[in-house]
Amino acid sequence: MSYPSLQYNDLKLVAKLGIGSQNKTYKVLLKLTIEEFVLKKEQYFSDEDKERVNRDIEQMKKLASRFTVRLITAFEHDEDMCIITQFYSKGDLRKFIGEIQELSEEERVMKVWAIVAQVIRSVDYLHSNNVIHRNIKPENIFLMEDGSVRLGDFKCSNSLVGDQESIVGTKVYFAPESWIKKITDFSSDIFPIGIIAYELLTGHNPFEAETEHGTVEKIKKGQYSQIPSFVPREMNEMIVSMLNSDSSKRPTTKQLLKIGMINMYLTMQEEKEKIQFDNSQEAEIAKRKTVEAQQEILRLKAQLASQQQQQQQYPAQTQQYTTAPQQYSVAPIQYPAQQQQFNQVQQPISYPPIASVETVFQVGPIPHNPINSSVFEDIRFNGETFTHTDKNKNNSTILFDPPITNGFAKIEVLNIRGLFQVGIVDDSVRCERNQLPLIQGWEKMAYYAN
C-alpha cells in the first residue's frame, strides 16, 4: 500500500537502525495505523547529494518487485530526503551471518543454499533489467518475516558496462577488475555473492586480512582461504567459480539458477510465495479499509466534539406537550458506571396518566471495555480496532461492559472484514474461544446478522 501524501509529522521514531557517512536509518511507526516502516534520512543539500539520492529513488521505482526492498514514499524534510521503505523485520544479512554460526554444519549448509539461491534470483532480476548493482554486501541484503530476501540500496547501481570514474561502495566486496582495470560489468555482481556465501558458512570474509588494504590486495591476487571440508562438492564448486579472478570465467546468474540445489530451493520458495501472495492480496484490501475506517473514526469524533460544544453553549430546553387529562413521563436515559452489577430480570415499568411528555436526550458515546476472556488468544486489538490473528478459523465473540439497562442505544460498527453479527445479549452471557452467543439460547440475545 502506498502513502503518497505521507509527511514527517505522520511518523513516530521508534529505534535507530544505523548511521552511515551520508545517512541515518530509523525504525518508525505510522501514527494512524501503527504500521512499521524504515525511514532513511539522506543528506540532500549539494547537487552531488541530490544526484546520488535521486538515482536511488528512481532505481527503486524502476526495479519495484518482490526481489527488492519496496519504496513506500519519499519527501524532503529540512535538508534531508526522507525515504520510507517497507520494514525488514529480521534485519540485514550481516546480523544473520552471526546468528547462523550457532547452527550445526549441516543446518548451516541448508540455510546457505536457501539464502544464496534467493540472492542470485534477485540479482538476476536486476541484470535482466540491464542494471548492475555495484554494491552487493550483507548490509544491503534484507530478510523479511516470511524468510524471503530483498535487495536494497541502489545509489551505486547503473546500467553502464565499462569504465567507472571512481570506486563506490564497500571495498572488501569489490571484484578484482574494479581495482585492476577500473571496470565493472554484470560479472562484478557475481564476485561478492561468492564472498557472502563463504561468510555465511564460516562467519568471515575469505580474503580477510589484518587491514582493509591487505584484504584488497588479496582480492587483486585471488588469494582466498580454503573452503571448509564440510561444504558439499556442488556448493564448493559454485563458490570457487564465483570467486574466479577472471571475470569472463565467472558464471552468469542464468547459469547459477540452473544448479540443481539452487533450482530446488527456489522451487520451494516459489511455492511458498505463491500462497503468501494470495493471502497478501486479501490483506492489502483489509489494510486499505482499515486506514479508511480510522479516518472515518477521526471524522466522527470531530463531529461529536462539535455537537457537544454546541450543546454546552445552547443547553437543550425541556419540552412539554399538553394533550389530555392523562399523563405519562419518559425517564431520562442514564448510563451506569463501568462494572456495575444489574439484576437479570427488570421490574415492569408503570406509566402514570398522560398529561405531558418530558424528553431529555443525552448525546455521546457510552464508556465501554471488552470483557476479558480466552477469545483474546485469537484476537489482537488496538484502541477500537479488533483484528483476528488468522492463525485459525475460530469464531470470536467480543462482549463489552457496561450493560444497557434502559433507554435507547445506537451501536455503530465499521466493518472492515469478516464481521458476522452485532447485537445485545443478556448480562449473564459469556463466550469463550470459538463460541457464539446462541449456544446459551435465542431468548438471551437480539442481533443483526451481517
From TrEMBL:
Coiled coil: 283-310
Domain of life: Eukaryota
Enzyme Commission (EC) number: 2.7.11.1
Gene Ontology MF annotations: ATP binding; protein serine/threonine kinase activity
Reactions catalysed, as given in the entry: L-seryl-[protein] + ATP = O-phospho-L-seryl-[protein] + ADP + H(+); L-threonyl-[protein] + ATP = O-phospho-L-threonyl-[protein] + ADP + H(+)
Keywords: ATP-binding, Coiled coil, Kinase, Nucleotide-binding, Serine/threonine-protein kinase, Transferase
Domain called Protein kinase: residue spans: 11-266
Annotated InterPro entries: Kinase-like_dom_sf, NEK_Ser/Thr_kinase_NIMA, Prot_kinase_dom
Gene3D superfamilies: Transferase(Phosphotransferase) domain 1 (1.10.510.10)
Protein name: non-specific serine/threonine protein kinase
Organism field: Streblomastix strix
Organismal lineage: Eukaryota, Metamonada, Preaxostyla, Oxymonadida, Streblomastigidae
